[in-house]
Amino acid sequence: MPLAAESEIIKLEANASYYGEEFNGRPTSSGEIFDMNAFTAAHKTLPFGTMLEVTNLANGKKVVVRVNDRGPFVPDRELDVSKGAAKALDMIGTGTAKVSIRKIDGIDAAAANATSPAIAADQTPAQTTPTTTVASTTAPVVVAAPSLGSAITGSQWRIQLGSFSNEENANKLVVRLRKDGFNPAFEKTAGLTRVVLAGITDAMLSGTRAKLDKAGYGEYLVRREE
After folding, report:
1. pLDDT tens track for 20-66
2. Smallest Cα–Cα separation from 70: which of 106, 25, 34?
3. CATH assignment of 118-226, given 3.40.50.300, 3.30.70.1070, 3.30.1380.10, 3.20.19.10?
4. How far apart are CA 27 and CA 206, in angstroms?
5. Which band of pLDDT confidence, cut at 50, 70 and 90, is reported for residue 186?
6. 3-state secondary structure of 173
C-alpha cells in the first residue's frame, strides 16, 4: 500500500537558491543528467530520491521537488532548486528565497535513487494494465469512475487521480490535491508515477467522491483494494 504524502518538517525557515543554464545537461551527484526545467533539487545530506515540498514564505507558492544532487555549497543555504522549480516559486528575480521545507513520504527513496531521469514529454510510456490511465504532459487523462452502489461492506478503496510518465506532472497534481485538503500518495512503477488516494473505507468513500467532485476532480478511477 502506498505511503501517504504526509511528512516531517525539515526546516520551518531556510535560505534556498537555484541553478540552471550553467549546469544544464551535466551529470548530478546522483548520476542523473541535470535538467534545469525538471522539478529537482540539491541538498547536502538528504538521500537521493527524497521528495520535498518547498514553500516560498514571501508569497506562499509551493512546489514539490526530488533530491538528485548535492549542494548548495554556499554558507547559510539549505537547498538549491532547479530553474523550473524556482520559476514555480517565483524566485527567479531575487535569486534566493526564504522557504519552508517538508519531506513527503509518498515515494520509495531507494527506488527513486535507482530510477533513471524522467521520460521525456514526447515519449509514450509502456502500457501496464488495462486500468492504468495514460500519461499526459499537461494534465492527467483518466478513466471515469464506475458506479459503486453495490460497495462491499468492510472494503477499502483506492482512487487514482492520474498516471504520469513525467514526475513533474505527478508533483503538480499532488500539490493541488494537498491544497484542496486531500492526503494523496505516490505509487511508482517502471516508467510511471501514479497519484492516488488510498485506504478509503466504505464509510469514507461517498464523502471522498463528493469532495473530489466539488473540488473539480470530475474524473478518476476507483478500485477496491485487495
Report:
1. 998 999 998 888 899 999 999 999 999 989 999 999 999 999 999 99
2. 34
3. 3.30.70.1070
4. 47
5. confident
6. helix
Question: CA 223, CA 121: separation in Å to the nearest integer?
Answer: 28
Look at residue 2 in the predicted model and tell me its pLDDT: 47
Sign, CA torsion 52/19/49/90: positive
Task: Report the topology of domain 7-107.
Answer: Barwin-like endoglucanases (2.40.40)
Work out the mean pLDDT of the chain and round it to a whole number: 76
21: DSSP letter: G
Strand order in the sheet with 192-201: 185-189, 192-201, 156-164, 221-224
pTM of the model: 0.48
Say what the pLDDT of residue 164 is.
85
Domain boundaries, the chain: 7-107, 118-226
